[in-house]
Fold this sequence. Notes:
Elements (H helix, E strand, L loop, with lengths): L3 H12 L4 E5 L2 H15 L4 E5 L5 H15 L4 E4 L8 H23 L8 E6 L12 H24 L3 E8 L5 H4 L4 H4 L6 H11 L4 H13 L7 E5 L3 E4 L8
Parallel strand pairs: 1-2, 3-4, 4-5, 5-6
Antiparallel strand pairs: 6-7
Helix pairs in contact: 1-9, 3-4, 4-5
The structure holds 1,4-dihydronicotinamide adenine dinucleotide and ligand LYYGC724.
Amino acid sequence: GAQGIGRAVVQSLMQSRAQVAVVDLNRSCGDQCKSELDSEFGADCSIFLQCDVTDADALTAAFQTTVDRFGHLDIVINNAGINEKNWEKTIQVNLTSVIKGTYLGLEHMSKEYGKGGGSIINVSSMAAFLHSPHQPVYTATKHGVIGFSRAMADASSLGGYGVRINVLCPAFVDTPLLLSVEHEDNMGKFVKFKDDFKKSMNHFGVLKPSLIADGMMMLITDDTIHGAVMKITCSKGIHFHTYEPMST
Ligand SMILES: NC(=O)C1=CN([C@@H]2O[C@H](COP(=O)(O)OP(=O)(O)OC[C@H]3O[C@@H](n4cnc5c(N)ncnc54)[C@H](O)[C@@H]3O)[C@@H](O)[C@H]2O)C=CC1
Ligand SMILES: CCCCCC(=O)/C=C/[C@H]1[C@H](O)CC(=O)[C@@H]1CCCCCCC(=O)O
C-alpha cells in the first residue's frame, strides 16, 4: 500500500534494508510514495507497481515482476482494504484478493515448490472481534481473513511449506480509510450510523500507523510466530488473541 498502514510498513521495511515492491491501485499516491522512497533510500531499493488486486492476472504479473526485479520473494503483506458501499467489491478486495495473494505468495516462497520459505501477513481488523452495524460486510471479510489465514498456517505446518502465515488486527488507525466512514460514497446506506461509529472511535482512541508498522515488523522478524492473530489497540498495545486449543 502506498498510503496509510501500507506506507508506514514500507518505511519500516526499508529502514531495515528490505527491498520493497509497493503495489497499489492509486497511481498518483504510488508515484508520490516511490519518489519519497527514492530520496530517502535510493532508487534501486523499491518499485511501485500500479495494480488492482482484484484483477487476478494483474496481481499474478505483479508478483512475477517483483521476483524478476529482486531475484526472490521473502515477505508478502496482503493489506489492501476498502469500505462497504459496494458489498461484492468489498469481498473481492478485502477477502478474495487476500486469498489470491496468499496463494501467489506460496507459489513463490513455499518449499513445496522448491522455494526457500518466507512469511505472509494478512491484514484483518478488530472489526473481526467487535462487530459494527456500520460495516457488516467489512466485518464479514475481516472474520474471513482470520479463518482462512489460521487454516492456511496449519496447512503450511503440516505440508512443510516453510512459510509462516500470520494475521494483524488493528483497532482504529489514523489513515484515509478511517475518514471514509463519513461518506456515503464509501459506506452506502450505513453512513447514517456514522455518529455511533465516531462515538466508538472517541471511546477506544485512534492509533498511529507507525505502531501498526511496529507490530508488522515483529511478525516479520520473529520466526517463532506462526498461525498467530496479533491485535493492536490503544488500551493494550500490541498483543495476541488467545484461542481454545482444538480438541482432537
Ligand atoms: N484505518 C483503520 O482504522 C484500520 C484499517 N484496517 C485495515 O488495514 C488495511 C489498510 O488500511 P488503511 O491503510 O487504513 O487504508 P487506506 O485507504 O489508507 O489504504 C489502503 C490502500 O489500499 C489501496 N487499495 C484499495 N483498493 C485497492 C485495490 N483494489 N487494489 C490495489 N490497491 C487497493 C488504496 O489505494 C490505498 O492506498 C485495510 O485492510 C484495512 O481494512 C484494519 C483496522 C483498522
Ligand atoms: C473503516 C475502516 C476502519 C475500520 C476500523 C476498524 O476496523 C474498526 C473496527 C471497529 C468496529 O467497526 C466496531 C468496533 O468497535 C471496532 C473497533 C474496536 C476497537 C476496540 C479497541 C478495544 C480496546 O481498546 O481494548
